[in-house]
Design a protein that fits this description.
Blueprint (H helix, E strand, L loop, with lengths): L42 H9 L16 E2 L9 H15 L2 H17 L30 H14 L6 H15 L8 E2 L9 H4 L11 H10 L4 H8 L6 E3 L4 H5 L13 H10 L12 E3 L10 H9 L5 H5 L7 H9 L1 H15 L21
Antiparallel strand pairs: 1-2, 3-4
Helix pairs in contact: 2-4, 2-5, 3-5, 11-13
Amino acid sequence: MFHLIVVHSCLAFTLSDWLNFIGFGGQEGRKPQPVLEDDEPPQWLVDKMKTRNQGTADPAMPSKGGLREGFYRHSCPNAEQIVADVLAKNFKTNPSAASNVVRLLFHDCFVGGCDASLLLDYTPSGDRVEKSSNFNGLLLKGADLIDEIKSKLEQECPQTVSCADTIAFATNEALILGGMPRQRVLSGRRDSLVSLASVVEDNNLPAFTWSLEKMIDTFKKKGFNEEEMVILLGAHSVGTVHCDFFLGRAYGYRDTKKPDPTLTPEVVDEMKKVCVDAGTPKYRNPPMNFDETPTVLDNLFFKNMVEKNKTLLETDAYLLNDARTLPTVKQMAADQELFHKRFAEAINKLGTLNVLTGKDGEVRKTCRSTN
């Protein structure tokens, strides 16, 4: 699942700090890849587009949830390239920028649907917005980057590309920066008019304190099975998690004053070397990498689980001790190409959750407020 954690890029949420989901980026991801083109549209659609206002999105063709590939092919043909350029520029100076975007996608889609409600600073009812939830709060990162991308899109195609689609396009580029192949992105989402922190806090984002049963149940309610949950947890391959989220496993597991017995001495020593000065005024809650390649989305996270019994979060450790999840862990550990394929499928599925299309919602001019 997209386990929300406080990471420089990862998914695992805490009660107040709530993570930094995925931190993508690898040398492979820096190779430019061409934006995929669709087949030529039928002549009737070309003729229709000549007579319509180019400041609005192209009509969606039949597809999953009302979404389709090439939604902006005529109304804003450079949209995906604009997103790619801004993200690539930011990644050069801030490698965690890509992971922050992926985390935004999960936090937005998993709560009430992929509608950019997470980005609103205010809702007409005056209620607390999703940003103010303890699951997001001050640690929510990436919104400024979406603002920058949206500003560029507005200059090119005013009020055409939705904020929800901007997040989807940016996530695809983030995955590329993490070393994955380019995917065809479905688009045509529209933006929500409301945002409520209460919805976030109603067990709609998984926490690192949850049991495996609760995680599985929550993901099933969103349409994801155990296998897909494990694969999405592979996002922990990139980024880091702060010591506060696993410190007890190294120093005092469940009030025993001893390490978690499921951890090897080598893993415990590694934790203690990073989480120095624990329990003293000098302690600064530093971050620790989930694996040795924190900027690359690979299967090393799973390989370390199988070969070294290495897990930082206890919720990750559960995956090794349950017959419903262990086979998928082993599969992903054995085949990186398969992991990339399945992770892309899971992310694409996540991006279609409860989308607004057609005349529902709106296309915001700025992602922080409704029109």
